[in-house]
């Protein structure tokens, strides 16, 4: 057994958001990343089926009833995920509309009697208290609930396990914090937090029971593995989008296009989102009877933006193409500025939680002053004679806010700013309102939304990007529609829809899922060709400048995300060029003292097991044993007095539950195990507990091919074996860290220079095409 550790476990990496934060961590063997608003050590997930003798015997003991039970319970849990997420989504919207609605009603009533100072005080103080509450519970109770949660869930589905992202505390803080933060008039959305909420619900249901709370039924243990949890989390994220936009098909496509790294869950995801759609339809019918207070017909959860006889001709295509180009440019600029702002915020996040709360409250103060002050810059407009609703709007949401205007007039900028984000989108998407807004009001609203959404996202509170991007894109889309005017058959509301699609495509770089979400959101199938064109153009333009906003945030947070494609320089390297060693090896029958020493001195999670007693002249690779399984063997004290192979009775000391993976709780640690000197001199037979068929690659395989295998199968450890048989049976172990560009270019710095040479050579040829 070698005395030196290897790089089996992911080496320590620094999150780009704050390179100094990792210094205080005691865990120096695991990679670290910013989870929510805190720096935490992270590990990899293992989607490989661990085929050892104990596993095979357990599966052979299952009858047809147990197999049916497994399949039935899995579908039942998908149904429960859809049911619970739809209820949470509905209650979220109900709470936000009523909480924010009461605030706007009280403020508007004071404006009617010209008590402007008191109106501002109510507006300011309510926003401040709501933001303060959201930031306090997030900073002190569940820091992992900060932000949208989509980068964390996306990293999890790629195989990165971050602590605390799916706990019950995170779920509760995510729900309550999202309601209060969105109600505080911050320019943030609730769609991203709903994706995280759905994933939390799915992870908790699919955790396979809890020993702490006595939920350890036999049939629940079948889901105590990374593969089933991944399936449930994917369904939960799809349900979250479906509950946010009432878009079941869009939710399925979003989870597959943006979130999941594996695509074998289409049918179960569709079933889950169908449950969400049916439940929302039933709950919205209750609100239509007037039993939901200020919720009305359901906020964003009930976006029904239709247009009668939507027709367009070839002359309408050029303005749509312009919208796509603008969306791509603005989307890439949005991502660039957001990255810079998050880097600035990271210096504050490196300090005590109180500084994070002060930052959130400062953003709230600035936002409240801006939202209350800007409508005073707009001139009052006379109410249209043929208005489709009451004008001016008094004491409720609507298109015609009175604000400070005299009777019979309305403030068009207040109709957008002095409203919830959902109502602002409705006003921008509304039909037959081409003369409602002034050019200056739309431009002011666009600039306000664009910059406020960037500064608001990084606060220590649940905050999404979907709705702010929709609001911002709809505002400049409406502005383009006003410029085009009568030269197009499309009304201004439809231009707003296309503008929202273009900025979503330019920022988030999704196409199919966004197209379906917008169609389901607006209930207007006739816009399909135009939305497709806008999304394709905006994504193409934006891809020339930077990446997807969620990929940028994941990189800033330090998540080791494996892309679906290999970098060109990986074709020039073999796995031997990046693997590090020497290895920690175990014999099939190993001394307890050696196992304890290795576990206490390293943080590795997988160890090759060799057989030196085989008929071969040199040792041969027998398999791979996990750290968690070794700890179980030590805890159960499955020891032998002599170095001989154990008989089949060894299985009687264990149950399948002993080797299942823990849920959100902490697993056993080697420091908690106490052994006597006599026990340390005993032996453990690793034969029944080793994965005897681990994935292996020969040392001459290209790194690109190894990456594809590693990602597609969902591995945590990939053994590298020699090409020549008379050498050591294992050359090294590849982990997620070994495929990261930062690690590869750090080991081979000359590749950086060659990459720049290739770019400098290809760039002039690329420019000649234009």
Automatic annotation (TrEMBL):
One of its GO terms (cellular component) is chloride channel complex. Residues 690-750 form the CBS domain. Keywords: CBS domain, Chloride, Chloride channel, Ion channel, Ion transport, Membrane, Repeat, Transmembrane, Transmembrane helix, Transport, Voltage-gated channel. InterPro entries: CBS_dom, CBS_dom_sf, Cl-channel/antiporter, Cl-channel_core, Cl_channel_pln, ClC. GO terms for molecular function: voltage-gated chloride channel activity. Its main location: membrane. The chain crosses the membrane at residues 67-95, 116-146, 166-188, 232-254, 260-280, 292-314, 320-337, 357-378, 442-472, 493-519, 525-545. It is found in: Membrane. The keyword Repeat applies. It is a multi-pass membrane protein. The keyword Aminoacyl-tRNA synthetase does not apply. Belongs to the chloride channel (TC 2.A.49) family. This is Chloride channel protein. The lineage of its organism: Eukaryota, Viridiplantae, Streptophyta, Embryophyta, Tracheophyta.
């Amino acid at each position: 057994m070698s005395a030196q550790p290897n790089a089996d476990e992911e080496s320590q990496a620094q999150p780009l958001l704050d390179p100094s934060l990792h210094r205080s961590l005691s865990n120096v063997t695991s990679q670290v990343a910013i989870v929510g608003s805190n720096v935490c050590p992270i590990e990899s997930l293992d989607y490989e089926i661990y085929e050892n003798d104990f596993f095979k015997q357990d599966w052979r003991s299952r009858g047809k009833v147990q197999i049916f039970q497994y399949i039935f319970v899995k579908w039942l849990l998908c149904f429960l995920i859809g049911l619970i997420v739809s209820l949470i989504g509905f209650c979220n919207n109900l709470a936000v509309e009523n909480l924010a609605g009461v605030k706007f009603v009280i403020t508007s009533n004071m404006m009617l009697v010209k008590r402007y100072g008191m109106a501002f005080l109510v507006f300011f103080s309510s926003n401040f208290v709501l933001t303060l509450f959201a930031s306090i519970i997030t900073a002190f109770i569940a820091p992992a609930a900060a932000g949208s949660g989509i980068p964390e869930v996306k990293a999890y589905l790629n195989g990165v396990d971050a602590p605390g992202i799916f706990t019950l505390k995170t779920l509760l803080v995510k729900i309550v914090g999202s309601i209060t933060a969105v109600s505080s008039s911050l320019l943030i959305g609730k769609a991203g937090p709903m994706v995280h909420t759905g994933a939390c619900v799915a992870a908790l249901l699919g955790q396979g029971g809890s020993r702490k709370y006595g939920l350890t039924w036999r049939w629940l243990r079948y889901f105590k593995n990374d593969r089933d949890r991944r399936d449930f989390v994917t369904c939960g994220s799809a349900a979250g989008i479906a509950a946010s936009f009432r878009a079941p098909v869009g939710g399925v496509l979003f989870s597959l296009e943006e979130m999941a790294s594996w695509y074998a869950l289409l049918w179960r995801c569709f079933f889950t989102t169908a449950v969400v759609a049916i439940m929302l339809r039933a709950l919205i019918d209750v609100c239509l009877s007037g039993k939901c207070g200020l919720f009305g017909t359901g906020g964003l959860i009930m976006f029904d933006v239709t247009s009668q006889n939507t027709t367009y001709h070839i002359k309408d295509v050029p303005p749509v193409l312009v919208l796509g180009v603008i969306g791509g440019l603005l989307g890439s600029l949005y991502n660039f500025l957001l990255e810079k702002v998050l880097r600035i915020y990271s210096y504050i996040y490196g300090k005590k939680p109180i500084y994070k709360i002060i930052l959130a409250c400062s953003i709230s103060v600035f936002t409240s002053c801006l939202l209350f002050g800007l409508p005073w810059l707009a001139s009052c407009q006379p109410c249209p004679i043929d208005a489709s609703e009451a004008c001016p709007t008094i004491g409720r949401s609507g298109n015609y806010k009175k604000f400070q205007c005299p009777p019979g007039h309305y403030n068009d900028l207040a109709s957008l700013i002095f409203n919830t984000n959902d109502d602002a989108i409705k006003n921008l998407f509304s039909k037959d309102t081409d003369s409602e807004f002034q050019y200056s009001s739309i431009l002011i609203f666009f600039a306000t939304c664009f910059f406020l959404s960037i500064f608001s996202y990084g606060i220590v509170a649940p905050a999404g990007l979907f709705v702010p991007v929709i609001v911002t894109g709809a505002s400049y889309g409406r502005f383009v529609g006003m410029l085009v005017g009568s030269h197009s058959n499309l009304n201004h509301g439809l231009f707003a829809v296309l503008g929202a699609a273009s900025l979503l495509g330019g920022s988030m770089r999704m196409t199919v899922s966004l197209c379906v979400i917008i169609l389901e959101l607006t209930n207007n199938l006739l816009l399909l060709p135009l939305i497709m064109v806008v999304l394709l153009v905006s994504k193409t333009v934006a891809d020339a400048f930077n990446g997807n906003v969620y990929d940028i945030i994941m990189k800033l947070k330090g998540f080791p995300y494996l892309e679906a494609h290999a970098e060109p320089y990986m074709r020039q390297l073999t796995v031997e060029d990046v693997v590090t060693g020497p290895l920690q090896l175990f014999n099939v029958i190993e001394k307890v003292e050696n196992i304890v020493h290795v576990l206490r001195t390293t943080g590795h999670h997988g160890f090759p097991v060799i057989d030196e007693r085989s008929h071969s002249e040199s040792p041969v690779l027998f398999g791979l044993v996990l750290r968690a399984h070794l700890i179980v063997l030590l805890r159960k004290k499955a020891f032998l007095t002599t170095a001989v192979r154990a008989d089949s009775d060894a299985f009687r000391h264990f149950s399948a539950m002993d080797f299942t993976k823990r849920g959100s709780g902490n697993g056993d640690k080697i420091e908690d195990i106490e052994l006597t000197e006599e026990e340390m001199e005993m032996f453990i037979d690793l034969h029944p507990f080793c994965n005897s068929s681990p994935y292996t690659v020969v040392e001459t395989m290209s790194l690109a091919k190894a990456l594809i295998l590693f990602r597609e199968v969902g591995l945590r450890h990939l053994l590298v074996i020699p090409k020549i048989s008379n050498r050591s049976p294992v050359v090294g172990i590849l982990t997620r860290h070994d495929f990261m560009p930062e690690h590869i270019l750090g080991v081979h710095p000359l590749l950086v220079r060659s990459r720049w040479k290739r770019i400098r050579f290809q760039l002039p040829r690329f420019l000649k095409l234009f």
